[in-house]
Design brief:
By secondary structure, this protein is an all-alpha fold. It is built from ten helices and no strands. The protein is globular.
């Protein structure tokens, strides 16, 4: 495998790895829906459709989205990039909207969602849906750089669960179960970290010499 191909796979594989823990947790939660309801999963048994849509949408969004930001993939498979991008729009919107619904209507124990986390979840859901909408309208107008920037922002918000798993997992190992205000702050911090990283990537790409790689991918896809 050439150095170029290795580099093309590195970032997507790291993003897939970041998604692994929340996806495993989501699978376990879906499996629990097929068993008898308990006090812990009663809210999911009462309304299973939102959690199913959220998990499926988030899983596809994380996995397909991981390969969207590799310039090598865009050059080699431009049509795949364009077609999977349409799927990502639907999956991302599904993830954001079902996340808003669950945060608002599921009876989440106070120790797992206080006022701070609820407010942050509302802002993240709205911001993610808005970012996807702006990105979609931008590519329709062939504003490639703007499209890329807003998709990076949307993906960073969608990947919050992966960063949350790392932070909460580390704190749980060090000090035991994390609940209440501490959990709210750590969950919020995870999204903040992702947003900062996303903005750094966007500015780094904007300041680097542009060789119209994105344009080439989209132009080829229309051939």
């Amino acid at each position: 495998m050439s150095k170029l191909v290795k580099r093309d796979f590195l970032v997507p594989l790291l993003l897939v790895a970041l998604s692994a823990i929340p996806m495993l947790g989501g699978i376990a939660r879906l499996v629990s829906l097929s068993s008898q309801g308990t006090a812990e999963n009663a809210r999911f048994h009462a309304a299973p459709i939102p959690i199913v849509l959220h998990f499926v949408g988030a899983a596809l969004y994380a996995l397909l989205g991981a390969f969207q930001f590799s310039s090598g993939f865009r050059r080699r498979w431009p049509r795949w990039h364009r077609r999977s991008g349409k799927i990502l729009v639907l999956c991302g919107l599904s993830t954001a909207l079902t996340g808003l619904w669950m945060a608002s209507f599921y009876r989440i124990p106070h120790g797992l969602q206080g006022p701070i986390l609820y407010a942050i979840r509302m802002m993240v859901g709205v911001a993610m849906a808005a970012a996807i909408t702006v990105a979609y309208s931008s590519i329709r107008r062939r504003e490639f750089s703007r499209h890329e920037a807003w998709m990076i922002r949307a993906y960073a918000l969608g990947q919050g669960a992966g960063t949350q798993a790392l932070l909460l997992g580390t704190c749980t190992v060090l000090s035991g179960e994390v609940v209440g205000l501490t959990r709210d702050l750590l969950m919020s911090l995870a999204w903040a970290i992702n947003v900062v990283v996303a903005e750094w990537i966007i500015r780094r790409r904007a300041s680097a010499p542009r060789q119209a790689v994105s344009q080439l991918g989209y132009e080829t896809s229309r051939a």
